[in-house]
Amino acid sequence: MMMMILSPRQWLLLLPLVFLSTLLFSYLYTTLWLRPERLRQKLRSQGVKGPKPSFLFGNIPEMRRIQKLATPAQEEGAGPTDRFSSNYVATLFPYFLHWTRVYGSIYLYATGSIQTLHVIHPDMVKELASCKSLDLGKPSYLQKEHGALLGTGILTANGDLWVHQRKVIAPEFFMDKVKGMVNLMMDAALSMLNSWEEKVESEGGRAEIVVDEFLRNFSADVISRASFGSSFVEGKEIFYKIRQLQKAMAKRSMLIGVPGSRYLPTKSNREIWNLGSCIRSLILDIAKKHGQDSAATRNKFFLHSIIEGSKAASFSSCTPEDFIVDNCKNIYFAGHETTSSTAAWCLMLLAAHPEWQDRARAEVLDVCHGEALDFDKLRKLKTEEELILRPQKQQNNRDDIQVYISP
Ligand code: HEM
What we know:
single chain; mainly alpha; CATH 1.10.630.10; 4-stranded mixed beta sheet; disordered C terminus; binds protoporphyrin IX containing FE
């Protein structure tokens, strides 16, 4: 066996390498294991248990295993109504159901090094819902792992940056502004309903319509018109790209939290990077045109407030361009899928419960008397309100741990 003898000079040259490796190892050990373990210990001492995570992947392998085992059994066992309404948690998130049975209504699980507190205890849900963003803060992983989609916008920001964004964005959702949007919502809804009617007529009075894409387009149409005014066609192009970005990011959703996975030049990561820079250019182009168009500057759309907000403050973590791009993306993301899936959920509940359809129809006839819907009439439609309020799922992101509030 040959042994290599190093001279003192060679040893000295190796020292920085040894030093760097030790630093890297202790950094990885602290962030990936020690810090999450301390957090878990704190919660364990308060009686919060949960499945044992593995190093690097947390509980992802177990989630995959439970999902694989559960899906065929549920598909066979559940009726169509069951599968989509009361029992949908079992179909979509069988691991939550399994862990709830084992650990109770509050437990901790991990995806990679991200720790999530799963809560379905009503009192705690109530208490958490009363916390404002600044009370608990938002976790840094959102900006790191979902950077291409959320950046440093209002959904991920903390401290002064969040306060400034909130001041800029909140007035856009004051009641008088929303009242002014009802007409454009009606226009978008009517054009969608007309296309459904045309389809039904062309197919002899009966047609099967897959509503998801229509509702997504409807929601994109409304937010684009409300946010970008006359530039709404370009706004819709951004939606299309953001949807593609979401799909690309969903491909690696189980890997979120696995250290370093977002830097690997995989096919989906490359797609994410390309779409990210394409969306950025599209938004900045609209913003530039808006600045040159005096009519657009007079009509104060959401984009106008964001552009003004980007000039009003300087933050080390965010350039004025980032401010515009990230907040536009955040509004798209926050308002698009949420409203379209809520609408799809309501339609699905109505389809599953014909007696609710009768109630809703009678109410609309009673309130509208054949006239177009307006803001005041909308407030009188209680069945629709009840449907919207029937919970889907909610996830609140807070510093250190994510809080998943299940229905
Ligand atoms: C059914 C529809 C919607 C649901 C269920 C929903 C749900 C939520 C939830 C749970 C949060 C808190 C997230 C967190 O703190 O971690 C949130 C925040 C937010 N949502 Fe929505 N949302 C909906 C529609 C919209 C729409 C239409 C818009 C705008 C066009 C919007 C804009 C926002 C913004 C800007 C925030 C961040 C507020 C802040 O941090 O101060 N949302 N939403």
